[in-house]
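Please, structure for the following, as tokens.
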Amino acid sequence: MSGRLVSRLIIAAAIVVAAVLPIILPSWATLTTLILAKGIVVLGIIILLQAGQVSFGHAMFFGVGAYTIAFWGRYVGPGDLLLFLLLGPLIAMAFGLLIGLFVVRYREIFFGMLNLAFSMVMWSLLEKLYAFTNGADGIRVARPTLAGIAFTPEAFQYVLLYLTLGLVLVVSYGVQRYLDSPLGHMLRAIKGNETRLEYLGVSARKILLIGYVISAFLGGLGGVLVATAQQIATPEFAYWTKSGEFVFIAILGGIANAAGAFAGAAVFETVRFFASAQLANAWQLILGVVLIVIIMFAPNGLIGLRNRRKAQAEVRP
């Protein structure tokens, strides 16, 4: 059986589990939605990691998406989820373009710290502008309609789950095609030899800016989905620990391809769900141990571990 066929079977099995498990265990519906939504955000982190750049402030785009629908509900009125799924990512993408024009001039630690600084500015504004943002209490997000149809809370959690699953399939395919395209290869060239890329007449800043804007779009999309699932948007969505969480998930799953984002998110959210239930004050310790084990035995992440085993099998006579 070829490696490509095995990969497709694994992906198909994961899709079936995500679609069927919440029906068998209704309590998993929202958890599965959160796993998929955060995986979408982590796809943006993976795009930037292809260029060797780590964003420690990418939660700002996650927060932009969440607060877009929160502000709409507070100042405009009830909205439709389809509108939110378009508006939130587009506004996040606009923020990404404005901030990206500045941060793509820098590399490595400077790139990461500048993103962190912008994120903390946004967090501070969300905390301090209490009259508009409700401060640390956040803004409640009312359950939206979908194409004008209102659903009960029980039905809506499944509607949101399967809509999120559909979006995951679309954006995962799109991101993987992007990474395999000439633009994706040029993005990797920034990490390998940026000077050579410039000698070929290609602007490294432009290539990185394109990836940055795409990652901001994905962050906004994930923010809309998580805020809708949790029915609240708080300043914590833009806090630096949330950005660290996304980077954690990316490392955990592996940055080799788009599937790593969802493998990492599944392990992260599942471990946190059960660990926090059993050890409310020590679940971070358990997550830390999991990350250490992954780094020791699978430095390229969960997806990288599978690829390494496949390569070892091909070497054997």
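The first helix runs from residue 3 to 24. The beta strands are 139-140, 232-233.
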